[in-house]
UniProtKB/TrEMBL annotation:
Keywords: Membrane, Mitochondrion, Mitochondrion inner membrane, Transmembrane, Transmembrane helix. It comes from Microctonus aethiopoides. Its main location: mitochondrion. One of its GO terms (biological process) is mitochondrial respiratory chain complex IV assembly. GO terms for cellular component: mitochondrial inner membrane. It is found in: Mitochondrion inner membrane. This is Cytochrome c oxidase assembly protein COX20, mitochondrial. Belongs to the COX20 family. The lineage of its organism: Eukaryota, Metazoa, Ecdysozoa, Arthropoda, Hexapoda. The chain crosses the membrane at residues 29-46, 52-71.
């Protein structure tokens, strides 16, 4: 019955990439679509012009999605770089004496401060 494949996996492939594995992709679209719907509804309520409301909705979806995705990916990459720096400093600290180890630990605590 079970041949090692997971039939319940939620994968979505675009251009050969599984977008469910891209960090920030799902949240970017959720925030973009919900903001676009809100902007479209508000525009329609205040102007009663469906074409303007649809343009406002699509523009808001694109703007919010791309902006949120950019900021989120920047944060993910920054966190990955910091984690790599901390890992290398911890490995260097293992092979040093007490004075150098304290310097490495101080650098690690400086990196972890937010």
């Amino acid at each position: 019955m079970n041949d090692g494949t997971n039939d319940n996996s939620k994968s979505f492939i675009i251009f050969g990439r599984d977008v469910s594995k891209i960090p920030c992709f799902k949240h970017s679209w959720i925030y973009g679509i919900s903001s676009g719907i809100g902007a479209g509804l508000l525009t329609f309520m205040f102007t009663s012009r469906p074409q303007l409301a649809s343009h406002a909705m699509v523009g808001t979806i694109c703007t919010v999605t791309l902006t949120y995705f950019g900021f989120c990916r920047y944060k993910v990459v920054k966190d990955e770089i910091t984690a790599a720096q901390i890992k290398s400093l911890m490995q260097e600290a293992l092979g040093t004496d007490d004075v150098e180890r304290e310097d490495k630990i101080k650098k690690i605590t400086d990196l972890t401060k937010v």
